[in-house]
Amino acid sequence: MRIxxxxxxxxxxxxxxxxxxxxGHEVVAAEGDASRLxxxxxxxxxxxxxxxxxxxxxxxxxxLRAAVELRGLRPTTPVLxxxxxxxxxxxxxxxxxxTEGLGYLLKERVADVREFVDAACRVAEGGTALxxxxxxxxxxxxxxxxxxxxxxxxxREVLALMAQGLSNSAIAESLVVSAGAxxxxxxxxxxxxxxxxxxxxHRRVLAVLRYVAGI
Amino acid sequence: xSALLKRMFGAYTKPKVWLQSVHLLIDLFVGIALFTxxxxxxxxxxxxxxxxxxxxxxxxxVVGGRLVGQVERARVxxxxxxxxxxxxxIVWEQSLWLRAKQMMTDRAxxxxxxxxxxxxxxxxxxxxxxxxxWSTAFSLASLPLWGWAGDxxxxxxxxxxxxxxxxxSLLIAxxxxxxxxxLLVAVLPRIINALAKVDVALANTLLAPNxxxxxxxxxxxxxxxxxxxxxxxxxxxRRIERDLHDGAQQRLVSLAMNLGRAKERLRESDDExxxxxxxxxxxxxxxxIAELRDLVRGIHPAxxxxxxxxxxxxxxxxxxxxPVTLHSDLQRRLPSTVEATAYFVVAEALTNVAKHSQAHxxxxxxxxxxxxxxxxxxxxxIGGASESAGxxxxxLRDRVAGIEGRLRIASPVGGPTVLSVELxxxx
Lengths: 215, 427
Fold this sequence. Notes:
The complex is a heterodimer.
Chain A: E1 2-6, H1 10-22, E2 26-31, H2 37-44, E3 48-52, H3 62-73, E4 79-83, H4 88-95, E5 102-106, H5 113-124, E6 128-130, H6 132-142, H7 146-149, H8 153-163, H9 168-175, H10 179-193, H11 201-212
Parallel strand pairs in A: 1-2, 1-3, 3-4, 4-5, 5-6
Chain B: H1 2-9, H2 15-48, H3 54-80, H4 96-104, H5 107-141, H6 143-149, E1 155-158, E2 161-164, H7 167-207, H8 211-266, H9 272-299, H10 302-307, H11 309-319, E3 324-328, H12 336-357, E4 362-369, E5 372-379, H13 391-401, E6 406-410, E7 417-424
Parallel strand pairs in B: 3-4
Antiparallel strand pairs in B: 1-2, 4-5, 5-7, 6-7
Helix pairs in contact in B: 2-3, 2-5, 2-7, 3-4, 3-5, 3-7, 5-7, 8-9, 11-12, 12-13
């Protein structure tokens, strides 16, 4: 897979390049400035773009704004946003344009290299990778909505894992329950949230997020 | 005896009475000069009003009144040893028209002009008083000297009859005159001092700002310095946050990533000891990142700078174990110190809700009304929160007071608890 990185810290840029290289991915370009992101993407046509939220010149959220702009102009380019902090308002901006090929993770998740590379691959293939913290914030922001209140704690857990983009079997593994139990929870969630399930994982996530993020 | 002499005439050995006399004498000449110039300028301005030239002339004259104040305050300071505060400088408006208006309505300037006019009659009184007092006192006191030295006896006329004073009567008259003179010499410094006091009072009334104006000036001075210190400490916190973000945090993430890579490499290794060591180091690095992240957020959350209060408060709500509802009708970004204060109010309030209130739910309201940001945190817990219970609320009150806000807590035992804060945020 061909990857483009926009990250202003040289240390992390080089670390990421080496890390992804170890897993057989090629970093075609690494850039320290968000303003050149669009041009770089057009030039390299990468399979995945990894963007840091906070970058020069203002060191606020230009990376995120560049990512949103990129998704607006090229909805099919998968983007994985990394940030020192996850903020619900950033997530809302990103999710507003759909969840296909979208990732939003805390920067420190790169420490768990295997999980990180898995998440990157999932995003590149059109899936979703949301940090558990993002999901928790989205749920917290919207828990005043009655239907979500009606979920059991277990269903809530399952919903959170679903929102992170995990498959049924992955959810079952993570909660140490059978796949059948997970399916039961999910169908219960869908009925409580009045959602029709579909075959594709990401559409499921999309539906859940549409609901919890109020988008 | 010498003590009595010192009490009566000691004042002459000190410069005070001499300087005061000089000052009072100069008053007349200053009065003549100022009166002439000011009255000429004012009548010129008035006369030229019809040609419009009069307006700038009047403006210049009024501002010239400030110059009078400056010079006269310096004279009072030099000769009477009284330090009068200067009028606050004019804070100039942007437009020329407003500036002209400011000049023509300048209180300090007009007071300087009034002083100039009053100085003529007063200078006359002061001059005559000083001359008469000094000459009478010392000539009478020295009467015996020239009374005897004179060739012809002194004479005076009463009811058409000429009298000559000579012999014993001359001696008695001289003695009486001399006694009166000596008494006058003794009290002269006090009279001069009283006259000088009138001078100081005049200058203080007309050339120095009154007490209310002085206080107002002091208040605005303090306000500026307080605002600057609040702003600089807030700026310092933002700088620390950024330094940590760009430095330590990135380095830690990089360290954790490298440990993660090492961990993956060692996964298949037989060296169990190394594997355990790297695992532990990896976990610790991740924990350090999380701790540093929380710490930095406590210093100054980045999202507050980027997205404002609403977004930052949402993040706080997400971390609060008690369900929180937010009602915000903020339409605009507020000054950064106001946003930061409001943020920490909500953060502390939610911490209390989570720790002590046993509440099932909480509500946050953010609204802007009449130049005030209203922050209200309401919970349905057991109440009984007070400032004496912990340092949190007291620290909050100090923080709110730092930007002239008001904090109120209503928390009867049994609940509910309402914490409300009003912060001035400009309009």
